[in-house]
Amino acid sequence: MKYHGMLVAPFLAILMLAILAPMVSIDSQASSGKPTESMLIDIRLDGADMIGAGMEETFTLRISYAYPERILNFSYLAEMTGANTTGGSVTPENATSGEGVFKVAIRGPITPGKITIKVNATATEARNTWYRVKEFEIDIAKPIYVKAKLVNNGDVAVTGVSVKMLVDGELMQTEEYNLTGRQTIDLNFSWVAASISEGKHTVTLMIDDSTNIIDFSNGDNILTLDVYYSNSGNILRGVLVLMIVFVAIILVLTFLQKKGGSKRTK
To answer: Count of domains in the chain?
Structure first.
């Protein structure tokens, strides 16, 4: 019986240590107040694989934990790192949420290249705070901007006017607009691609309007522009070419209006 009692005592001691060890660990973390790294945290950054230089895109940051029922809230701290960050930003840089879903606006730096978004995510329980750090790489491309004016030539409002942008015959972007009677609005399209070849590209804007009263400022429902792209040249080169084309169109339209007005006064 004594031998049996000698075996039971150590067994009970080991069992008590096994039960109390996690509690001691939890208490020590709670008293230190320092988060502990955990691979049970998952971090995702959903959005575009590429951002135009100087342009902004909205991403969805998702933070989750393997045992969500234990988590009171999630939070993050995000920063843009690397040599190419001038003009770039992450907004907001930090936030807290019970669901772990955040909308984050990332503005690309002014110089093409690559950026890294470093996210330090935390998941907080009643007595513990866990963290994990993950990095996301995003390409920054040199964009080409296309601007135009959309004109409602009628007295009635028109909704759902579709405008398509094609580059060298390939559809790149589609936007919808609503115009009140006799309204003129500015269109701003941008073309961002991982690899844009040097030289001339043809950009075409097309209006899809069943009322046939919506045109561009040139009086047509199709606008074709030639853009000359240079990787080594000034980033504004394509924009300047477009501006010159539009200035020429405006001057011609102004001249024709004046000429028409002078005939009517006679």
So the answer is: 2
The overall pTM is greater than 0.70: no
Number of residues written out for the chain: 266
- The candidate with the shortest Cα–Cα distance to 204, out of 176, 168, 241, 177, is 168
CATH number at residue 148: 2.60.40.10
Q: Taking a C-beta distance cutoff of 8 angstroms, is the pair 41, 64 a contact?
A: yes
Q: Note whether 150 and 179 are within 8 A (CB).
A: yes
| CA pair distance 196, 173, nearest whole angstrom | 16
pLDDT tens string 93-107: 999 999 999 999 999
Instruction: List Cβ neighbours of 86 (8 Å cut-off, separation of 6 or more).
Output: 109, 110, 111
CA-CA distance, 179 to 157, in Å (whole number)?
Answer: 6
Of 91, 125, 141, the last residue of a domain is 141
